Amino acid sequence: MGKHEIEVTINGKVYQEEVEPRMLLSDFIRDVCGLTGTHVGCEHGVCGACTINVNGTAVRSCLMFAIQADGQQVQTVEGLSNNHELTDLQKNFIECHGLQCGFCTAGILMSTEDYLEKNPNPSSKEIKEMLSGHLCRCTGYDGIVKAIEKTIEERNQSVLS
Amino acid sequence: MTNVIGKSATRVEDKRLLTGQGKYIDDLGTKVNTGHAAILRSSHPHAYIKSIDKEAALKMPGVKGIITGEDIRGLVKPFSVGVMAPVEYYPLAIDKVRYVGEPVAIIVAKDRYAAEDALEKIKVVYESLPPLVGIERALEEDAPILHENVGSNIANHREFNYGDVDKAFEEADRIVKHKFNFPKYTATPVETYGVVAEYDPAHDQYTVQANFHGPFVIHSIMAQALQIPSNKLRIIVPKDIGGSYGIKAGIFPYIVLCGLASKLIGCPVKWIEDRQEHLSSSASGTDRVTYIEAAVENSGKVTGLRMKMIDNVGAYIRAPEPASLYRNHANSTGAYDIQNLHIDAYAIMTNKSPTGLIRGYGGQELYFPLERIMQEVAKELNMDHADVIRKNLVKEAQFPYKTASGGTYDSGNYEESFELALATGKYEEFRKKQEEARKNGKILGVGLACIVEPSGSNMGYITVALTPEERAGSLPKSGAAEAATVSMDPLGSVNVRISTTPSGQGHETVAAQIVSEVLGLPREQINVVAELDTSTSAWSIASGSYSSRFASLGSSAIYYAAHKVRTKLFKIAADQLNVKEADLELEKGSIFVKNNPDKKFSVKRAAGLAHWHPTSLPDGMEPGIYETYYYTADVAQAPNEQDMINSSVTYGFVADMVTVEIDPDTAEVKIIDYFTVHDAGKLLNPLIVDGQIMGGLAHGLGGALYEELAYDKNGQFLTGSFMDYLCPTAPEIPNVTIKHTESPSPLTPLGAKGLGEGNTMSAPVAVANAVSDALAHLDIMIDDLPLSPTRIWKLMGEAKEKVTTP
Amino acid sequence: MKPPKFEYYKPATLEEALNLLEEAGDDGKIIAGGQSLVPIMNMRLASPKCLIDINGLEELSYIKNEDNTLKIGTLTRQSDVEQSEMVANVCGLLAEAITQIGHVQTRNRGTIGGSIVHADPSAELPLALLTLNGSVQITSKDEVRTVAAEDFFITYLTTDIMPTEVLTEVTIPLMEEKSGYSFQEIARRHGDFALVAAACHMTVDDEGLITAVRLALGGVEAIPLLIGDAEDILTGEQLSDSLLAQVAESVEMESDPESDLHASSEYRTHLAKVLTKRVLTQAYERARG
Ligand SMILES: Cc1cc2nc3c(=O)[nH]c(=O)nc-3n(C[C@@H](O)[C@H](O)[C@H](O)COP(=O)(O)OP(=O)(O)OC[C@H]3O[C@@H](n4cnc5c(N)ncnc54)[C@H](O)[C@@H]3O)c2cc1C
Ligand code: FES
Ligand code: FES
């Protein structure tokens, strides 16, 4: 069996392409669609660098075939900020030094956005458990946890006021 | 604007990285005819290659070519390395494989999928040889020999004697000694190696893009291996590197391999390493056996040290090894005033993957036995470990302190920093808590470690691998040079070009901070170019990102290059305003007369003159503004006849206190708190500094508790995935308290020292000391890592048996 | 690490899936969450010729409580079970076990059925299912059969399911009033497969006498191991240190774990005993309220 035509919506844009069934979604996003903000660090589901949102849920793009995303809604790191305006979470990554080399960062942002949507008030322990699905070898996670905590705090305050 | 140095400025790199706009090696566009490579690797630890059949593989769809060792024989010389042993190391195995994961063939195809399909069709016939795994086994008479022409498994052996060691040991009240094992582990940057190599037959030139954090000495080594003039090897390092921690210096064989493949197959070749390849075959740290002996007075004073260090550099010794043995040579006695020192250093080869730079390089291997033995001294003398440390620390008045082996510790106040660590961690209070807890069956422990963190490597240190006689046979090596270029264009905009190949350390930010301060311009207006291009960047034989050399050396080069620009601007302004340069001041983009600020000349205008109107410049001044500065530190001298060597430029200090709890049932170690005090001189950007420290600490904790590149006794590799090679994740990182003391370095213009490796060196032994302390009641010896529960449980069981069956 | 070639089918109905499986025979493989299958395909440790993607079978994704039996469709994501208030209320053991599978991001995709069919010896769900005396519903073109967890796991990564069959539903009988449970594991890091895991479900009468107990262990055998002796030793008794020791002894007798890099066989056996005591104690305390 040869190639299949698929249609995937990524960050609101429709990509219609022919793919071999075995093409990983991570490769599709990067090499076919040219969205290189999604990174690949292990291709066996552990490092979390490739994490994206599929239909609003954070998943590993290295553990899905592109063909499985046919007809689905995908969001990648490129789709987070609006017209170059950084999100509160992104800004707090800057403020709290939540990144160094930045290679793990896209995946962590995608996981965190989804997680906070479903759990607006996690404890530090829960944040760390959520982060256990991501490897960062630069930061020791400290700045990342702080950035997420700051975001939660700010969101709570804006709800109150 | 002024006083930006030392501020916790946020990073200029961040916005692009947070929005997915980073430019890492795998993100760069390639030419349409680029082939994608996969590498067939040895499944045997030690074997002859009898034959390789690539016919079936060549017929697979999309395959452009396959290169084996046979194809490169004669085309490439073995990589040179700084030892006398005639080890032949090539980018592909020729005739023989010597570790699981060694490259045997490279397949180039239309995409990586097709390349892997073809890889499965290659048939290699091996003839197995007995594997060599154990470090000490390598030295035995009847051990299998990896390199027949070397004749033994010893790649390098040196003995050093400083002071009067025999006398110290004769006069000692006691001798405390033990053998320690440090395991092989690595740093696994989340981004793996990547190379895009293109051979241009018209100019016989190789252009290679790679996430290599050199070029330093390795550029020369690669050019020699390819047998080309070095200007025919152009290496371009992308703006962004997804972490390295030293590991990415080990990419060089692949740069040569992909270059050769491009030449032989006739298309650009791109190779992105996968994680399995990375774990089995990329550079890692050495595993080391150390026999350490301390000559001790009853007062707790250590008067002499003997260390026999046997470092395992894996299957092939390659640059920069055996540097792992010597990188810390000047600071072999750590933070202690010990003037009698004997070192017996071996670099040996076994059937494991070859080693290379890694965060902490050689430090964790050195400090594990050294700091463990200090605690053993305390036990032996029934003293508090803290008191033994106090007794031996180099005293404030002794700075600059000359070490036994030729180092000069430039500045510090070790006692103050150590006491701060104890006070922060409430050491005495914890001791009481520990006693209470023991009554309730709880096992608590506290570990201490004090280490000297060297930074800015002296290029000369590696030559102590040779005897003074051998050294005399070649050019002496010294220095720790780094270069930077600062330029101003016709409209007064500033570009800074650095050669420090950052991989997340924020060099762009700090470079902009420094230049902003020197030139009195807003940081945002300064553009820093971090891409390195060996054909166009200013770089030195030492350039790159390793040995924490940015803060001490890179920043100094930037500082002085900016000053050259400033001087030129002042000269122009003085000439135009008809005043003396000395009377001028610079602020907010304007150069003005100190006591008459209305008399001024804008920086932009001065720059404009240099470009648009060069005939107006003072006599003899070159047009344009483009200044390069090569910085080196005078203290980085070549070793002398007595093998005295100041192996680094600056020396920081780290004092750690860590508390742990061990589950008496499961033997799991839980870190309660980690306190670390750093003296890295003047801090250039505290936000970045603490980030570096946390990262280094997390890696150190990985080494202490989780990470190991493990092999079984037959040389089979056991940790080929991230399910087996355990990197700490967020829940594994304990509470950490970081504090700073600041003893500015007198050697660097900004007073800064390097940092970021300290806790990688200290954490493994600090945690080991804590576990040893916790289990003191069972008289357990901790001499191996990582401290996995299975290991500790075994030790506890054996100890209890000893108690019950006398 | 790129997967080998395969043909791909995405059936719209269970019937279609079953037909495809029948056609493919030994070459066919179901993909559910892909969290176990895709890594091994990327490593080329598995090369199914034909992948049948059941992710379109929405009807296999549900959580129901019918006649005091919890019924979970095979395609239900692990995170859906984790977030289900109903599961938390009626089946605490399952809720506790779920959170220890991998990470949020793998649970978002990984399915209930996939984990059970994958049958890793230290996986949480097979252990929970066995402890809770659950069973699985297996559907083929010809029949729908129900297999008790006790009979389902055969050996390392092998179950009673045939290549032409689909696991369609997991059923768990629900707890009685005075019951308690515990699920605990020792893993190297958060989210790792357990070195050893233990689970217990227990009912107790008003006097604190144990009326029924199921104890099982993961990571000590090729399949999750039910400790039958626990029932004999503990029924009709109040939990005591000496009884705990007795059960632990049985556990030691019955387990025969493998050694690997992260835990020796002896250490695993020891952990099995430690965890046995811990889960029995916790379950007992919870049952007594
Ligand atoms: C980083 C990481 C950590 C993990 N940690 C854990 C852990 O701690 N504990 C744990 O238990 N698991 C862990 N897993 C695996 C877990 O996430 C998987 O979800 C689970 O093992 C398989 O479920 P799946 O839906 O992904 O199945 P798939 O991977 O799609 O399939 C697994 C197998 O089951 C078969 N199969 C699936 N569904 C059916 C069906 N309905 N009928 C018949 N056959 C079927 C497939 O053919 C395949 O052979 C981890 C995975 C990753 C990537
Ligand atoms: S690349 Fe997908 S989890 Fe690592
Ligand atoms: S910032 Fe480098 S891996 Fe996380």
TrEMBL record, chain A:
Alphabetical list of Gene3D superfamilies matching this protein: 3.10.20.30, [2Fe-2S]-binding domain (1.10.150.120)
Metabolic or biological pathway, per its Swiss-Prot or TrEMBL entry: Alkaloid degradation; nicotine degradation
Keywords annotated in UniProt: 2Fe-2S, Iron, Iron-sulfur, Metal-binding, Oxidoreductase
CDD domains registered for this protein in UniProt: fer2 (cd00207)
Start and end residues of each 2Fe-2S ferredoxin-type domain: 4-80
Superkingdom classification of source: Bacteria
InterPro entries per UniProt: 2Fe-2S-bd, 2Fe-2S-bd_dom_sf, 2Fe-2S_ferredoxin-like_sf, 2Fe-2S_ferredoxin-type, 2Fe2S_fd_BS, Beta-grasp_dom_sf, Diverse_Oxidoreductases
SUPFAM superfamilies: 2Fe-2S ferredoxin-like, CO dehydrogenase ISP C-domain like
Any GO MF annotation of the entry: metal ion binding
Pfam families named among the record's database cross-references: Fer2, Fer2_2
Protein name as annotated: 4-hydroxybenzoyl-CoA reductase subunit gamma
Species this protein is from: Domibacillus iocasae
Lineage, top ranks: Bacteria, Bacillati, Bacillota, Bacilli, Bacillales
TrEMBL record, chain B:
InterPro entries listed in its UniProt record: Ald_Oxase/Xan_DH_a/b, Ald_Oxase/Xan_DH_a/b_sf, Ald_Oxase/xanthine_DH-like, AldOxase/xan_DH_MoCoBD1, AldOxase/xan_DH_MoCoBD2, AldOxase/xan_DH_Mopterin-bd_sf
Pfam families membership: Ald_Xan_dh_C, MoCoBD_1, MoCoBD_2
Native source organism of the sequence: Domibacillus iocasae
GO molecular function, one term: oxidoreductase activity
Entry keyword annotation includes Oxidoreductase: yes
Name of the protein described by the UniProt record: Carbon monoxide dehydrogenase
The keyword Oxidoreductase is annotated on this UniProt entry: yes
UniProt entry keywords in alphabetical sequence: Molybdenum, Oxidoreductase
Residue span(s) of domain Aldehyde oxidase/xanthine dehydrogenase a/b hammerhead: 19-130
Automatic annotation (TrEMBL), chain C:
Gene Ontology MF terms in the entry: FAD binding; oxidoreductase activity
Domain FAD-binding PCMH-type: 1-177
InterPro entries named among the record's database cross-references: CO_DH_flav_C, CO_DH_flav_C_dom_sf, Diverse_Substr_Oxidored, FAD-bd_PCMH, FAD-bd_PCMH-like_sf, FAD-bd_PCMH_sub1, FAD-bd_PCMH_sub2, Mopterin_DH_FAD-bd
SMART domains documented for this protein: CO_deh_flav_C
Stretch forming the signal peptide: none
PANTHER family for this protein: XANTHINE DEHYDROGENASE SUBUNIT C-RELATED
Keyword Nucleus in annotation: no
Keyword Cytoplasm: no
Alphabetic keyword roster: FAD, Flavoprotein, Oxidoreductase
Protein name as annotated: Molybdopterin dehydrogenase
A Pfam family annotated for this UniProt entry: FAD_binding_5
Residues spanning the membrane: none
